[in-house]
């Protein structure tokens, strides 16, 4: 069976500077992969580039998603194909409520999956949204507020996971979803992500710290240094990094 996501020889640059320097990675359906690394190692650049962020340029390499050329797709086409990105720093959208934003995205995904299916009603969607917000221990009042406007850091991250839960992508890219969270918010967010694991859905989680992995057990952990994956394995790598840091890997580069 072919990989859900296959990255081969990927090089990524921004403003003429190469950031990712030859990336190879394969993710099968149902797998959870974690990329750990210090600041500036290329982790966020990678996931943003996979989603089609225009500030980054793919200079070499290939990326296939569900057997198709991901790099040939526009960002909205990647989303409709089942790719999702939870941002490290979620943006505010003034004048658009979280409910309306998610309803529009939900209808677009609904149509992409089955163009002939009857569109869901706003009332049905509202009920779904309230159930999922409760599962995240998220204040339902946030649903009627402009997207991320006035939200705390934890509320913004919960809103990202709420989007993930509603849209049910095939592959979720999570860019430091655990950053800036207190213990309770971290557990709620991690539980929301972990509850979505399935044989058909995969995750690529970017993080600096192993603490979120106490709640989400990955299949593979990769260490990224200076734009390359320098080591791959299981949870033992994350535990070693937690105690020893990245100095050992940096010395070998």
Structural description of this entry:
With 253 residues, the chain is α/β, with parallel strands linked by helices. The chain has one domain: Rossmann fold (3-Layer(aba) Sandwich), CATH 3.40.50.300. 35% of the residues lie in helices and 28% in strands. It contains eight helices and twelve strands. The strands form three sheets. It has a six-stranded mixed sheet with strand order 6-9-10-3-11-12, sandwiched between helices. Helix 4 packs across helix 5 (153-167). It is globular, with a radius of gyration of 18 Å. The model has no long low-confidence stretch (mean pLDDT 90).
What's this, in brief?
It contains eight helices and twelve strands.
* Poorly predicted sequence stretches spanning 5 or more consecutive residues: none
Averaged pLDDT: 90
Number of helices: 8
Strand tally, please?
12
Oligomer: single chain
Beta-strand content estimate? 25-35%
- How many angstroms does the end-to-end distance come to? 34 Å
Helix content: 25-40%
Strand order of the largest sheet: 6-9-10-3-11-12
Order of helices and strands: EEEHEEHEEHHEHEHEEEHH
CATH names the topology as Rossmann fold
The shape, in one word, is globular
CATH architecture classification name: 3-Layer(aba) Sandwich
Classified in CATH, the superfamily is P-loop containing nucleotide triphosphate hydrolases
Helical/strand content category: alpha/beta
Total domain modules: 1
Rg estimate, integer Å: 18 Å
Sheet with most strands = 6 strands, mixed
The first-level CATH class name: Alpha Beta
């Amino acid at each position: 069976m072919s990989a859900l996501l296959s990255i081969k020889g990927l090089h990524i640059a921004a403003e003429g500077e190469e950031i990712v320097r030859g990336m190879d990675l394969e993710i099968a359906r149902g797998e959870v992969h974690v990329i750990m690394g210090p600041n500036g190692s290329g982790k966020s650049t990678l996931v943003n580039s996979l989603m089609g962020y225009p500030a980054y340029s793919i200079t070499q390499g290939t990326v296939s998603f569900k057997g198709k050329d991901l790099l040939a797709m526009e960002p909205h086409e990647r989303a409709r194909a089942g790719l999702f990105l939870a941002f490290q720093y979620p943006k505010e959208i003034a004048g658009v409520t979280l409910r309306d934003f998610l309803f529009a995205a939900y209808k677009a995904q609904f149509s992409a999956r089955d163009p002939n299916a009857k569109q869901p009603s706003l009332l049905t969607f509202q009920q779904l949204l309230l159930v999922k917000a409760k599962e995240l221990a998220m204040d339902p009042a946030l649903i009627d507020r402009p997207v991320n406007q006035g939200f705390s850091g934890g509320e913004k991250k919960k809103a990202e996971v709420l989007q993930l839960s509603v849209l049910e992508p095939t592959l979720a890219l999570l860019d430091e979803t655990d950053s800036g969270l207190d213990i309770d918010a971290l557990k709620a967010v991690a539980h929301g992500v972990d509850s979505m694991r399935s044989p058909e859905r995969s995750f690529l989680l970017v993080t600096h710290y192993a603490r979120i992995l106490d709640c989400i057990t990955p299949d593979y952990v990769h260490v990224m240094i200076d734009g390359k994956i320098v080591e791959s394995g299981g949870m033992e790598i994350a535990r070693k990094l937690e105690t020893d840091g990245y100095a050992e890997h940096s010395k070998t580069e």
